[in-house]
Amino acid sequence: MKDKVTYWIEMSDYDFDTAKAMLTTKRYLYVAFMCHQVIEKILKAYWSCVLEEPPLKIHHLSRLAAKSGLVNELSQEQLEFIDTLEPLNIEARYPSYKEQLMKMLTPEYCNTLLNRTDNLRLWIKARLSK
User: Fold this and answer.
1) What is the pTM of this model?
2) Exposed, middle or buried: residue 99 (CB in 10 Å: 0-12, 13-18, 19+)?
3) DSSP structural state of residue 94
4) Is there a contact between 121 and 39 (Cβ–Cβ < 8 Å)?
5) What DSSP string describes 29-63?
6) Residue 70, helix vs strand vs coil
7) C-alpha distances in angstroms, 9 versus 5, 36, 67?
8) Percent of the chain, pLDDT > 70?
């Protein structure tokens, strides 16, 4: 496997472990932020696997999926989940969104978010070995 693909996989795995640690320590805002990061980095691994050019330096998940061609393989449920994750990168950073976001980020919601992130992460990883 290419070095760049391995790099992005390792970063995604590291971020997933961080998201789990944040859930354990009840830092729910960071669970959401890290779930976004997990998928962003595994999408960049996929990009690096299928395209010669380096991944765009963006955080827009649906754009990464589209430009890499993975969007054509994603189910409707996976696309909707990407839409759910999309704003968590930005909203977690700005005070105007933080209070609203914190109300949504219950322990149960974060656990579900983490599980769905893991499912999508593993699904994309499986495509890297093909």
Assistant:
1) 0.93
2) exposed
3) -
4) yes
5) HHHHHHHHHHHHHHHHHHHHHH-SSPPPS---HHH
6) helix
7) 6, 14, 18
8) 94
**CA 120/CA 115 separation, integer angstroms:** 9
40-75 pLDDT, tens digit per residue, is 999 999 999 999 999 999 999 999 999 999 999 999
> In whole angstroms, what is the distance from residue 50 CA to residue 54 CA?
10
Tally of CB atoms within 10 A around 20: 15
Give the contacts of 41 (CB within 8 A, at least 6 positions apart): 8, 9, 11, 12, 15
The gap from C-alpha 39 to its chain's centroid, in whole angstroms, comes to 2
Positive or negative: CA dihedral 86, 79, 10, 49: negative
